[in-house]
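Lab notes, practical 5.
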Amino acid sequence: MDGYTAETLAADLAGAKVDPNEAQKALAYLRKNRDEKQFFAYLRAIVQDGRAVIRSGRTLDYYRNLLTACERHLRGMPADEMAQTLGWAIRLLRYYKAVPDAARKEHSQLPVDPKQQIITDFIQRVNSMVPKDVPGALPNLANQIEQLSVSDNLKRQAARAVVEKADLHINRKKLQGKRWFQKLREFLDTEPPV
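Output from the prediction step:
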C-alpha cells in the first residue's frame, strides 16, 4: 500500500467534503467483490442512475466526488491494493473531519500535478453548474475537452463528468441526436482496460 496515495486521496476527499460513511460503503463493495473494474462500474452506476436509491443530491455529489478522486488516485491498482489504500484514506478522512486544520496543512504540503489540476478545475466547473444552464453549456464544455493539453486518461475524467451531468439534467431522447454527446460516449467506450 502506498501511503502517499492514501494521503493525497484523503486530502482530495476532505476537500470535496465527501462523507466518510458513504466512502465506507463503496469500500465495502470493493472488499466484497475484489474487482477494480466492478468497483468503478459500481461508482459510475450510482452517479448515473443512483437517484432511485440516493435520498439527496448531496449524497449524489459525495459519490461523484468519490468517483473522481478514486479515478485520479486508484486507477491501475490491483483490487487488494486499492482496498487497502482506500481504507487508509477513509481513516485519514475521518481524522481530517475531526481535526480540519490537519487536512489543510497536509493538503497544502502535497505537490499538485498541474495537468490533473486542469481536470479537477474542469470537473468542479461542470459539477457546480445549475440545472437550467446545463443544456446550453455542456456542448461547449464537451468541445473544450478535445483542446485540453492532457492525457487521454485525464480527458476521460472530464468527459465522464460532462456525460454524467447531461444524464442528470437532459432528457435522454434529446441527447440521442446530439453529436457532441455521441462523440463523448464513443471516446469513453475506447477506454483501455484497467
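Observations recorded by the TA: The radius of gyration is 16 Å. The chain has two domains: 1-111, 112-194.
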